Amino acid sequence: MSTGLSVHIGLNQVDPAVYDGWSGELGACEQDAVDMAGIADAAGFDVTDPLLGPAATAETVTATLEAAAGRLAEGDILFLTYSGHGGQVPDLNHDETGDRLDETWVLHDRQLVDDELFELFGKFARGVRIWLLSDSCHSGTVARRLPEMLSAQELDRRFSTADPAEVGRRIRAMPQSVQSAVYRRDRDAYDRIQNTRTAKDRAKIDASVLRISGCQDNQTSADGIVNGLFTATLLEVWRGGAFAGSYRGLHREIVKRMPPDQTPHLFQVGAPNSAFARQRPFTI
């Protein structure tokens, strides 16, 4: 019988002492993590206590995923979710052929670089399935342009405000100014993280990883009152388990309901497993 583990990470704010005085306050990320944990529990997953706020440190997230890798074997599944700010650091190991930036999860005490995450995935056994949901942004520059792109009516509908100054507190992207300041101060640490790890496009990942992100790399993900826009839409499509389609079908239905400037992205890495994306979500 296959085993299903789930790990859920959500941060409504981070440590301002680490991020140049910026606390990154959001409203719905921790509830996203709790709601995803509830669905996983109902589906029969062994659910790790959600890592919320100050508990969501780089060390704790790393240790939790390493422990999961030690438990899961061929045929098992890890359901992993992250809800919070996304950031970027310069790509030093040339694994990002497009924008030359590595994406990050903005954890409480530091950013977790995507190279680290993919290295952790490389610790899982062949035949393990990993389903990753990331409700976060991957571009700080777009965040500065967003108020100019949306009308006052759309700002009010999307973010419950017509004031463009409020938008920066309603999207899940670390501001460009903060990214620059943090990288200048902690450059040695972030450079060392990349230089001591295998580039993700060369990393040997025996597990099959299927990721659905809240937006494209050049877009932003909207926060919300109860849930983030992406997570809320997923819950709407899932309908308490009434949804009967596949992972790909789930992605398609979510995209249909999302605004044009936030398009969830589905991709797979690791060992090829074409059947994975055709399975029903939350199936152990």
UniProtKB/TrEMBL annotation:
Q: Which organism is it from?
A: Streptomyces niphimycinicus
Q: Which domain of life is it from?
A: Bacteria
Q: Boundaries of each Peptidase C14 caspase domain copy?
A: 19-266
Q: Which InterPro entries match?
A: Metacaspase (IPR050452), Pept_C14_caspase (IPR011600)
Segments spanning the bilayer are none
Taxonomic placement: Bacteria, Bacillati, Actinomycetota, Actinomycetes, Kitasatosporales
| The protein's name in its UniProt record | Caspase family protein
